[in-house]
Amino acid sequence: MTETAPPRPRNAAPRKAERAARRLRKRRDAAAALTILGVVLFVSPLVSAFGSADSAGAVPLAVQYIFNFWAVLIAAAFLLSRALPRAEKEVAETADETTAPPNFTPRKPGRADT
Amino acid sequence: MTPSFNLLLTVCITYVAALFLIAYLAERSAEQGRMRFLRTPIIYTLSLSVYCTAWTYYGAVGSAARNGLEFVTIYLGPTLVFVGWWWLLRKMVQVGRAQRVTSIADLISSRYGKSASLAVVATLLAIIGTTPYIALQLQSLTRSFAIFAGDAAGPGGYAGAPPADGVIAFWMAAGLALFTIIFGTRNIDANERHHGVVTAIAVEAVIKLFALIAVGVFVVWSVADGPEDIFSRMPPDMIRGDEVFTARWVTLIFLSASAIICLPRMFQVIVVENVDERHLATASWAFPLYLFLMSLFVLPIAIAGLSELPSGANPDLFVVTVPLAKGQDALAILAFLGGFSAATSMVIVASIALSTMVSNHIVMPLWLRLGSDRVPASDDVRSVLLLSRRVSIAGVLALGYVYFQLTGGGSALASIGLIAFLGVAQVLPALIGGLFWPGATRRGAMAGILSGFLIWAYTLFLPSFGPEFGFSGLLDPQALFGVVIEDPLIHAVAWSLGVNTCAFVAISLLTNPNATERLQAHHYIKTPERASGSTIARTAASEELLVLAQRILGRDEGIRFFKETARAQGKLHGLPDPTETFIAALERKFAGSVGAATANAMIGQIATGEALSFEDMIAVADETAQIMEYSARLEAQSRALTETADQLRDANRKLTALSAQKDTFLSQVSHELRTPMTSIRSFAEILRDSNALDDAARARFSSIIHDESIRLTRLLDDILDLSFLENGRIRLDVSTGPLSDVIDRAVTATESLLQERSAVVERDPETERHVVTTDTDRLAQVFINLITNAVRHSGAPGDRPQIRIRCFAKDGGAHVEISDNGPGISAENVELIFEKFSKLGADSASGSAGLGLPISREIMRNLGGALDYVSGGPGAIFRVILPASATLPQSDKPNLSLRSTRPPNRV
Question: pLDDT tens for residues B325-373?
């Protein structure tokens, strides 16, 4: 009987905690993705891909490539640096509200960055 | 007109004085608690700019002029590390704050079981890696000075010989030492921030950024006509876009990334001087932005230098020489001040970091070992620490100066930046492993660092002094074991870090960590935020701990800490209890001053029980398991006790009820006995006292006395009978006979009563043809009782009592129902009628003592049957149940003769 019954509607606090935990998880994944993106952009043969089209009288494409993506990376890090601690704070707050901690375990970082 | 050397000197001295003033003001406002500004993430980010030394300030332009885009790698590595701050830097800062880490050597030694030897190795590595770097700063300062001096000497604006390089370097080193000693050793707790130093460095960071951007803007929009114009002046081979990505590119990004983590000065500003973990979030984008801005104008300045200046000019000095050649003296001085800032901030922070390491990991352990019999005095450790730190700062700078003098400022220094990067990067495997791999051991870390360090020294550091160092052949430092890698830097990186990591992992796998290592690994990897006290039990006398605290922290600070702890423990007076939590907190506080290894050793001198082996910990765990089992047993026992107590309470309740019943019974018996006794006594008194009685009266009284005596006797017989019946102590006289005979006897016995009330007994002889084997006399007694009761209670005296006796077989036994036409018994009285002495309503007049039914029921019980009241009939119906064992099936021979049988078991 109890198995087939629809799940008991939960109160707002755990759902809020779950949402906050999910948001934090996503932002951590974004932080990892950003690091990987940086590595792919700057520590890969991509940086050499724009060399042959060099033409005198303009800013070389390789220079443009590096500095433009560098700026993009900084902007993304700026957004993330504001979002990550906020999400972490939310998780801590919602965890305080509910007696049961949200179902989430912080993952160990897989690798250090270069 | 070039600025005179004197003007430059004046500017420099003014600038340095301003720095002193800023540092002083920052310290003072910090002391007064106005630290809000000092604690902003912006200050933190700016202090990180010690990464940009004079080597990067001047050298980036030089590198761009020589190798094109390669200079960017030095900035891209740190950018990637900071963008990924969440993974590594955050954990480092958390661990550093929780463990009160004082330096990178301290972090590693503390992680690997507070190993003193590991701390010494890491410290030596840091000194060897940093000293040439300091020399490099002195060199760039001297060279930039020399530009002005040389220029001034040329056109004749400056009279007299310019001071020698050595003199400038010497005074620079002395001035920096003074500044660092004043503002870098104000407190010995490395975790208490050096606000003055940090603020001064932040100011210098702004100045060097501003100077570089100013020169860049000047170059792009004043010398040239916008960015496209400046790039059009670029020599054709300067940037080969398709050749940017090379092994060297990857190696340099990797090296600079590890340098930002491992360089002692970077560790100092990132971890040790960090006041709030959240500042790291801001730095994660602000510091890459700073680096971005620093490198934005490097290429234009390099191009301008290459195109505007004569071909022999040193590209490392383009930042100053380009404005100077264009006649922008003020800009040149600003550019010079930028380089000056870059150099000084690096030297200051590096010497603080190194002096902390040297005093904590080398001087302090030596001092403790040499003077173990020294009489402890208040503040003595503290003063030794302060002195050693000051001497270390001077020593580090002196070392840098000597190095600078020895190498003569030659080209050997130019490449020292990257060489130093690789040197300090040797702690990287042990550091990363320590933070994320629980299996990393002290021996593994030691093997990794030492092997990497030796290979680095042989393949890169020694050859930097000249090609004559090192063997040839298989052990050629530039081609170990015949592995030819063209770039010596890549060769050294691959060999040193490769062997380092392999040794670290292999030895870690082969060895086992000791108890302290396991504990620290747990603190580092699992919960860096909440590093609690160790589980190792230590005890020490609070007095000795106080003496030690006063030696290290200073008299007042030590007493203050002990008072706070005592208050936290809830003690109003006296010293705090030396609990493990307290000792651990004290050790961490000491660690903030002298480093984890030394603090551990000092506590270990007076605390006992520290040296616990893994087996001891297992024993402790066993003990705990035993205690838990014991407590579980106790719990079970207490549960059993509770149950027993409940049972006892129940029994007590029953006993109390029984006792009350007994009391009631006794009082009822007394009451029943009293009534006949009273009448016997009074009639006996009448007979004795009055002589005027006639014979008739005398006879009547005598018969009353006789009747009452009989009644009394009967009552006593009944009570005795009941008592015997209740205890099952009666003797049953078992015989076999037809049931009808028994009923006949009962009816006959009550004949007179029936006659008296003219009662009618209805019987059905057909149903009475059972044969019973039982005590027929007793059974007859039961029937007599029931018939008597039926007669007595059958309604009003006028009615004729009708008594009906019915027998039927059931469940193998026989049931006999005796009913009357009376009013019956109300439901609430049904249970009462079987109680002793219970008389319902008007029964008291019936002359019965109220023992008939109880006795009857007891008899039936003794006969193995039962006596029930059947409710629901028109009158009262009593049912006598004879058990199957006492009943034979209906007999065809009702007149079976009575014969004795073997008495049943109840005798």
Answer: 888 888 888 888 888 888 888 888 888 888 888 888 888 778 777 766 6
Closest partner residue to B83 among A43, A53, A73, by Cβ?
A73
Q: Which amino acid is at B284?
A: S
Mean pLDDT for chain B overall: 78
* Chain A hits for B299, Cβ within 8 Å: 63
How many whole angstroms separate alpha carbon B458 and alpha carbon B464? 10
CB contact under 8 A, B228 and A56: no
Q: Is the pLDDT of residue B769 over 50?
A: yes
How far apart are the C-alpha atoms of B866 and B615, rounded to whole Å? 74
Tokens of B461: 């550091």
The H or E element spanning position B508 is helix B488-510
When pLDDT is averaged across residues B640-657 and rounded to a whole number, the result is 92
Count of CB contacts below 8 A, A vs B? 135
| Interchain pair B253, A42: CB under 8 A | yes
Dihedral angle computed from the Cα positions of residues B42, B46, B48 and B54, in that order, rounded to the nearest 10 degrees: 170
Give B133 to chain A, closest Cα distance, Å. 23
Residue A85 at interface with chain B, using a CB cutoff of 8 Å: yes
From A8's Cα to the closest Cα of chain B, the distance in A is: 35
Contact B335, B320 (CB under 8 A): yes
Residues of chain B with pLDDT > 70: what percent? 82
Tokens of B172: 């620079």
Strand order in the sheet with B735-738: B887-888, B771-774, B735-738, B899-900
pLDDT digits (tens, 9 = 90+) for B62-121: 888 888 888 888 888 899 888 888 778 888 888 887 777 888 888 888 888 777 888 888
What's the rounded Cα separation, in Å, for the pair B473 and B482? 8
Q: What is the 3-state secondary structure (H, E, C) of B682-750?
A: HHHHHHHHCCCCCHHHHHHHHHHHHHHHHHHHHHHHHHHHHHHHHHCCCCCCCEEEEHHHHHHHHHHHC
Chain B hits for A40, CB-CB cut-off 8 Å, are none
**Chain A residues with CB inside 8 Å of B80's CB?**
35, 38-39, 42-43, 113-114
Query: Which residue of chain B comes nearest to A37, CA vs CA?
Result: B80
Q: In which band, very low, low, confident or very high, does the pLDDT at B644 lie, cut at 50, 70 and 90?
A: very high
Instruction: Check pLDDT > 70 for residue B457.
Output: yes
Residue B286: how many CA atoms within 13 Å on its side-chain side?
Answer: 19
List of chain A residues whose C-beta atoms are within 8 Å of the C-beta of residue B87: 31-32, 35, 109, 111-113
At residue B725, the pLDDT reads 81
C-beta separation of B480 from B459 below 8 A = yes
- Alpha carbon distance A11, A73 (integer Å): 40
pLDDT band of residue B161 (cuts 50, 70, 90) is very low
CA distance B433 to B549: 33
Q: How far apart are CA B378 and CA B356, in angstroms?
A: 21
pLDDT of residue B538: 61
CB interface of B with A, residues 48-77, below 8 Å: 69, 72, 76-77
